[in-house]
Amino acid sequence: MGETVGNRISLSEEIINRAASQAMRAHDSGGRPFVLDKPRGLSVAIFAFAGSWLPDDWFTHPPFGETKMDTSTFPSLRSIGNDEVAVVNASFLRRFKAILDQLSLEKEVRKVVADHKQVLFTGHSWGAAMAILATLYFLEKGRPNQKPPRCITFGSPLVGDRIFGHAVRREKWSDHFIHFVMRFDIIPRIMLCPASIEHQQILNYLNPRSEFYGKRIDPHLAFYLKVMRSAASVATHDACNLMGCTNPLLENLRNFVDLSPYRPFGTFIFCTGNGKLVVVKDPNAALQMLFYTAQLSQEEAAEIARRSLYEHLVYDNELQESLGMQNVVHLDDSLEELPLSSDSGPAIVNTALNDLGLSTEARLCLRAAGGLENRRLRNQAKIDDNKQKIKDELSKLRGYQEKGETRELGYYDAFKSQEEKADFDANVSRLVLAGIWDEIIEMLRRSELPDEFENREELIELGTLYRRLVEPLDIANYYRNLKNEDTGTYMTRGRPKRYRYAQRWLEHAENKPSGWRSESCFWAEVEELCSIKTGCNNGPLQDTKKQKIQQLQKRLIEWINDGCLGKDVVLEGSTFVKWWKTLPSEYRSEPESSMIAKLIHG
Asked: What are the two backbone dihedrals, phi and then psi, of residue 458, each rounded to the nearest 5 degrees?
């Protein structure tokens, strides 16, 4: 017996049991969206969300009822570099926003925070989905020196997709979410299956206010088998990816089979049913366990299908026994070395795996999940080893930039001219760095780096320095070779992903809107504006150009003052100054125009 559950998740067993009790009680709370419990002697306030068994509160549309996340409410739930918004269950999101609109939740949370208590959101079944979204909402609104909220769920359905979980892990919020799952409980698997008419019958069985509550129903076996077939498709698809399968038929599968978008995140604690608890944080391993722990043989099919519904209703009783025994196994410590046979490896681990019914095939999938995360860590270490090389090449370009002013040409124009050996050497450094950063971006695109990678402070700083120093050279090379004439403008057709990613990293870190940190594209904007002739008519095109020019002048002053752009931009011989001097007076905005003139003349 190893470390206790309470120690691992930093919540006492007393609090976990209290949360389970309140979650089950709130499940039938008579129309109130949540129940607030402030137990004496404990440092937490427990918000337990009520359940719902209305079909529209589970699925809004077939097959899976998903929608893009509302990024105005949940701005972090997106992939930064890939610029993809997370997917969430539309019904869950709609109902949670309705709870927010009642204002009582935020009011009560503020009171608890003012009393210096830990906020703990909890829920059973559908209420668990509300607890998850509430926790994320208040994590988004978190303030420095304020305890982040925690979340414990019991029999929770899956809420979001792979990007949803990726974003939670990237923000280092994953440890705030604890999900207890009974071995055969159908609800944690239900979102892996397309919506069907059988869902209504199952929801009636689980609804405390229904006449069918807890009673034997005819379609339970058919429904269980349908869910597990869908879970098998998802688990097999993901397992093939874990094992590095590159067969194009794997992706073609999506054209013939509806695969659920929903995936696990957070810490999963599987209850074996005989007092043992198995803890796993790896989301890929959790998905495989959701499938393989609920396997059945033909002889026991009807009994397992019945248990899949019954177990959903007994979390509080099960946890009282399991937490009392503290027979706990933490799989993440040794996922890649799990024993493959039922009679090998550490006894405590193997016994727990056997109690969950994990076959050799299941254990291979769990090993593959652990192997993927280790490969990601090795890829990150490889990038860390390249940091000094990146810094050395950037140092060369910094020296080149400083020498450029002695030629009375700015950094951009000197490189664009390509008249001296120093210009050639700078181009070599540009290409070396492009190779390194393109490899990083490709790894990110293929999800071959840890989820936290894009949120590393050192990476953001290095990416920002690289973008500001090197992107002007890429722009110069683009226009020097007249690529704009056959490809289009740099901003619309020529900008490499490596700069787009680095810019998004900084904007996310600073909580700025998309496009806010575009200083490295200054020269591309100048080149684009240079190509459009200014006229004396007042047509819409000229009005648009006038606005762009005035906005560029304003941002130029801001960027120079912030140190984002060097003053070589305003040297007499620079492309910008030559163009700016040709502008009609009505295109120049004040006080920026006077400030630019002052910079030009020293």
From this structure: -65, -40
The pair of structure tokens assigned to 81 is 């570099």
Q: H-helix or E-strand containing 597?
A: helix 592-600
Q: Write down the catalytic residue from 37, 57, 161, 185.
A: 185
Contact 277, 328 (CB under 8 A): yes
Give which of 550, 560, 549, 444 is closest to 504, Cα–Cα: 444
Angle, CA 478 vertex, CA 477 and CA 483 arms, to 5°: 140
Q: Which of 21, 76, 79, 125 is catalytic?
A: 125
Of 237, 312, 330, 508, the active-site residue reads 312
DSSP 320-370: HHHHHHTEEEEGGGGGGG--SSTT-S-HHHHHHHHHTT--HHHHHHHHHHH
Instruction: Supply φ then ψ for residue 83, to 5 degrees.
Output: 55, 50
Q: Quote the crossing angle between the two packed helices 315-325 and 13-26, to the nearest 10°.
A: 170
The number of beta carbons lying within 10 Å of the beta carbon of residue 358 is: 22
Q: How far apart are CA 423 and CA 400, in angstroms?
A: 8
d(CA 547, CA 589): 10
The whole-number pLDDT of residue 190 equals 95
Establish whether 179 is a catalytic residue: no
Closest residue by Cα to residue 65 from 91, 93, 96, 95? 91
pLDDT at position 1: 46
Burial of 133 (0-12, 13-18, 19+ CB in 10 A): buried
For the question of residue 233 being annotated catalytic, the response is no
Query: 404: which residues sit within 8 A by CB, 6+ positions away?
Result: 410, 411, 414, 415, 568
553 sits in the region (left: phi over 0; alpha: psi -120 to 50; else beta) called alpha
Residue with token string 């499938």 = 291
**Structure confidence at residue 534 (pLDDT):** 57
Active site residue 543: no
Residues 63, 60: Cα–Cα separation, whole Å: 9
Q: Are 312 and 189 in contact (CB under 8 A)?
A: no
CB 281 within 8 A of CB 267: yes
The helix/strand/coil state of 267 is strand
Residue that the structure tokens 């890929």 belong to = 284
Report which residue type is found at 42: L
38 φ, ψ to 5°? -120, 80
399-410: b (≥16 Cβ within 10 Å) or e: ebbeebeeeebb
Average pLDDT per block of 10 residues along the chain, 602 residues long: 74 93 85 91 94 90 94 96 96 96 92 93 97 97 86 98 98 97 96 85 75 64 89 93 76 77 97 92 97 81 85 90 85 90 81 92 95 95 96 96 78 92 96 98 95 96 97 97 93 96 96 92 94 61 81 92 89 90 85 89 74
Cβ pair 49, 121 in contact under 8 A: yes
Question: DSSP state, 493?
Answer: I
Residue 261: the pLDDT is 96
24 and 153 Cβ atoms separated by less than 8 Å: no
Paired tokens of 158: 């899956």
Stated pTM of the model: 0.93
Q: What is the DSSP-derived secondary structure letter of residue 512?
A: -
